[in-house]
Write a structure and sequence with these properties.
GO biological process, one term: bacterial-type flagellum-dependent cell motility
CATH architecture of the largest domain: 3-Layer(aba) Sandwich
Largest sheet: 7 strands, antiparallel
Structural class: alpha+beta
GO molecular function: cytoskeletal motor activity; hydrolase activity
Pfam families: CheC, FliMN_C
Subcellular location: Cell membrane
Radius of gyration: 35 Å
CATH superfamily of the largest domain: CheC-like
CATH topology of the largest domain: Chemotaxis protein chec
Membrane topology: Peripheral membrane protein
Distance between the termini: 82 Å
Number of domains: 2
Length: about 375
């Protein structure tokens, strides 16, 4: 192009439908962008629910924004360390889905999963914290695949995600699924985790994968085509008259059936016989048949709950505090059910338990529930 005018070669290229420069990019239509936004809304809503269960915190992922970009442009706009989760579709859709969240947000998620409060997250993602975040991302993307299966009305399977920490400011590439200058679809979401995270996450899709998702959505919501009804040829007036008579008879029969269906029905409230409280007789007539059935008897000193972090820090000599007070009776369980309480004694060189109390039938019934 010279002085604002197209050259003859450029005009010929336009007439042939060819691109006039390498900067021209295939755009998504407004309908396709809306469809991708709706898909992202539903799938990431499922991911938010999954993450909320894992963290025990309220998580919301809202306001998708769909645009066409490329990886080089994204790196320039977000020169920050990101945790990149790359998921390959193995069934239903062919291609790759990339999810990117900021490293700082990933650190808070890791701290919450390890039992922390998220207020003082670690400064770096070591192997342990990376494993925790990877499991959270795996569960989230699994929820995304499940919701997409429901929306598309076909099975969608994914491979285990590949998680990497990438600094967009210095990295040469974000993913190998597409080239740095290739066009991609970026769906940006706002993610909030109570008062700990208020950030943006990105979903990066190759153009062909995005269009395949749109096609799957359109095919799922398109109503089935009605089967064509063939009309019988009119061969003669007598045949036409017979057909009209048969049609009239069918209409009369249908009206008769409809009239029968709308006849008033006598409806009465159901009445039950009064309940009589009684006791079930106990008999030992056949108890001898099960006398040789073995039962597992367990004496439980106490219980406690620990965080993953506390379990990993256990070492020889560590002391674990239980929920029983000193001198409090221990629980005696048969096949895992509490039946009695007792006190620990020493018989020669072995431990034993002296039964001090038998659980009443009412308490046993409560424990079974």
């Amino acid at each position: 192009m010279t002085e604002g005018f197209l050259s003859q070669d450029e005009i010929d290229a336009l007439l042939r439908g060819e691109a006039t420069s390498s900067s021209s990019t295939p755009e998504l239509s407004a309908m396709e962008q809306d469809a991708l936004g709706e898909i992202g809304n539903i799938s990431m809503g499922s991911a938010a629910t999954t993450l909320s269960v894992l963290l025990g915190r309220r998580v919301s992922i809202t306001t998708p924004r769909v645009s066409v970009s490329n990886l080089e442009e994204i790196k320039g706009q977000y020169p920050l360390p990101y945790l990149v989760i790359e998921v390959g579709y193995t069934h239903g859709i062919v291609g790759t889905n990339v999810l990117a969240i900021r490293e700082q947000d990933a650190l808070i998620i890791a701290d919450l999963m390890m039992g922390g409060d998220g207020l003082n997250p670690p400064t770096e993602l070591n192997e342990l914290y990376m494993s925790a975040v990877s499991e959270a991302m795996n569960q989230m993307m699994g929820g995304v695949a499940t919701s997409m299966s429901t929306v598309f009305r076909k099975k969608i399977d994914i491979a285990p995600p590949n998680v990497n920490l990438i600094d967009f400011a210095v990295a040469s590439s974000i993913t190998n699924a597409v080239g740095t200058d290739d066009n991609i679809v970026r769906v940006a979401f706002r993610m909030e985790v109570e008062d700990l995270i208020d950030s943006e996450i990105m979903q990066i899709l190759p153009i062909d994968v995005a269009k395949e998702m749109v096609d799957s959505l359109m095919n799922a919501v398109q109503p089935p085509a009605a089967a064509p009804v063939a009309e019988a040829p009119k061969t003669a007036d007598a045949s036409s008259s017979q057909a009209q008579t048969a049609k009239a008879q069918q209409q009369v029969a249908a009206a008769s059936v409809a009239k029968q269906h709308i006849q008033p029905v006598n409806v009465q409230p159901v009445q039950f016989a009064p309940l009589v409280q009684g006791t079930m007789p106990v008999t030992d007539t056949n108890i001898e048949r099960i006398m040789d059935v073995p039962l597992q008897v367990t004496v439980e000193l106490g219980r406690t709950r620990k965080l993953i972090r506390d379990i990993l820090e256990l070492a020889p000599g560590s002391v674990m505090e239980l929920d029983k007070l000193a001198g409090e009776p221990v629980d005696i369980l048969v096949n895992g059910k509490l039946i009695a309480k007792g006190e620990v004694v020493v018989i020669d060189e072995n431990f034993g338990v002296r039964i001090t109390d038998i659980i009443s039938p009412l308490e046993r019934t409560y424990n079974l529930q």
